[in-house]
Amino acid sequence: MCEVETSHRRPARAVCPSADGRLDPAIPLHEYAYLLGLYLGDGCISPGPRGVHALRISCDDNWPGLIRLCSNAIRAVMPANSVCHAQAVGCTQVVSYSKRWPCFFPQHAPGKKHERPIELAEWQRQIVDRHPWPLIRGLIHSDGCRITNWATRIVAGEKKRYEYPRYFFTNKSEDIIRLFTDTLDAVGVQWKSAPHSGGAVNVSVARRESVALMDLHVGPKH
C-alpha cells in the first residue's frame, strides 16, 4: 500500500527535453542531479496501465532524512504529481507516477542496470557538468556511505587510537562507476577503487583533503 504525502499540488513546469538535446529551463537542475544519482543507485521505473510509469527509489528505513530529501527532489522535478511511500522489508519506496518519467531518465530499459549500457543524454551531461556535487551526493546516498575507521599506534610506549572518516561507493555497473569517478575527478576528489564481492567495484575516498570536500558537499546519511 502506498501512503500518499499531503502537499499542495502545483501546475506542472518541466517538460521532457527536446529531441535535439536542449535543456528545458524549467527543470530544477540541482534537484534533478540529486535525483539522478538516487535513481542510478537505488531506483527503477516500472510501466503501468495507460502509459503511466512509476518511479521508485528505495531508501533504507535507518535514514529518515534521506526519505525526506528523496521526496523533496521528486516533488521539485515533477511538482504537479503526488509522492507516496510504500513500505517494504527494511526500506521505504518513494514512489511517483507519471507518463514522463522515462524521458526524464532515458537510462530506463528492461533488465538490471549493470547488465546494460548506462550513458547520459547530452542534456543530462549538461546538468552534471553544472551541478556535479548533487549527483555525487545522490550516488553516495543510494549506494554509498560515510564511515569512521580506526587504528591504533604505539606513541611513547602507549597505545593510542586514531579515527579517520572515509567515503565508499559500491556498484556493479562499470558505467555508473565511471560516471561517479569521472565526476569526482571533475571536482578534485582523489579516490581509489578495488574489486568488491559479487562482481561489484568499491570506490574509496580516504585522503584528508578529499574527505573534507565530501563532508562539505555530501555529508553522511541521516
The number of distinct helices, counting runs of at least 4 residues, comes to 7
Give the second-level CATH assignment, the architecture of the largest domain. Roll
Helix content: 25-40%
- Residue share in β-strands: 25-35%
Mean pLDDT: 90
Count of β-strands = 9
CATH topology of the largest domain: Endonuclease I-creI
Gyration radius (Cα, Å) is 19 Å
State the domain count: 2
What general outline do the C-alpha atoms trace? Answer: globular
- Which parts are unreliable, with pLDDT below 50 for 5 consecutive residues or more? 6-13
Distance between the termini: 25 Å
Report the structural category: alpha+beta
Give an overview in words:
By secondary structure, this protein is an alpha+beta fold. The chain folds into two domains: 2-141, Endonuclease I-creI, CATH 3.10.28; 143-217, Homing endonucleases (Endonuclease I-creI, Roll), CATH 3.10.28.10. 34% of the residues lie in helices and 29% in strands. The chain is built from seven helices and nine strands; from the N terminus they run E-H-E-E-H-E-E-H-H-H-E-E-H-E-E-H. The protein has helices spanning 29-42, 64-77, 101-104, 122-130, 132-143, 174-186, 208-217, and strands spanning 2-4, 43-47, 53-60, 84-88, 91-98, 144-155, 158-171, 192-195, 201-205. Strand 4 (84-88) and strand 5 (91-98) form a beta hairpin.
